[in-house]
Structures are given as structure tokens and as C-alpha cells.
Design a protein that fits this description.
The protein has 109 residues and is α/β, with parallel strands linked by helices. It has helices at 9-18, 32-43, 63-72, 101-108, and strands at residues 4-5, 22-27, 54-58, 81-86, 89-95. It has a single domain (4-108), classed as Glutaredoxin (3-Layer(aba) Sandwich), CATH 3.40.30.10.
Length: 109
């Protein structure tokens, strides 16, 4: 499995209106903790179903998308951060050391 990049508000709007579950990993390319969380997730990609998609949001390059997520779903911005979203609802979110693919499985299976 590979990351799918999330790069625009239009892309996020499309995901939101499709009304299916999607996962966003908010990653700061300037943060060692974020890099470690990303690496740990990549080690566990094998736990995910083959059709699972996890969107990677580069916070440095696309801060507007991150700000929109925080405002729209009323989730305080953190980095690194993982969110499970569906339509107008945030089903799950975690940050820093609490990021674990195993915790996402009940929402995406």
C-alpha cells in the first residue's frame, strides 16, 4: 500500500461529499515525531485491507487544507495527527504516540 496525497480543498470537498469513510494522516515534514509516526504507520500497512486508502497531508505545503479540517470537523490541529472522517463526522482522531493503524481498523473494515 502507498500513501495517496491530499493536496487541495477541492479534493477534500469531493471526499467529504462521497460520504464514505476516509483516513487522513496530517504530517509535518519538519517534525521528527511526525516522521516517526509516519514510518510506524508504514510498517503496519499490511494490517489494512487491500482497498484501504490513507491520505497523506503535508502540513507545510498545504496548511489551508489542515486549517479547513480543524475548523470544519472541530478537531484541534495537531501534528502528527490521524483522522477517520465520513461526511460531516469525525469518527476517530489521535495524535502523536496514540497514532496506531490497529485503532483505525474498526472504522475502515
Amino acid at each position: 500500500m502507498a500513501w495517496t496525497t491530499l493536496t487541495s480543498l477541492a479534493q477534500l470537498q469531493e471526499l467529504k461529499t462521497e460520504n464514505h469513510v476516509f483516513v487522513v494522516f496530517k504530517h509535518s515534514t519538519r517534525c521528527v515525531v511526525s516522521s516517526m509516526a509516519k514510518r510506524n504507520m508504514e510498517f503496519d500497512f499490511g494490517l489494512l485491507p487491500e482497498n484501504a486508502t490513507i491520505y497523506l497531508l503535508d502540513l507545510i505545503a498545504h496548511r489551508d487544507v489542515s486549517n479547513y479540517i480543524a475548523a470544519y470537523w472541530k478537531i484541534r490541529h495537531e501534528s502528527p495527527q490521524i483522522l477517520v472522517l465520513k461526511g460531516d463526522t469525525c469518527l476517530y482522531h489521535a495524535s502523536h504516540q496514540d497514532i496506531d493503524i490497529g485503532r483505525l481498523l474498526p472504522f475502515i473494515l
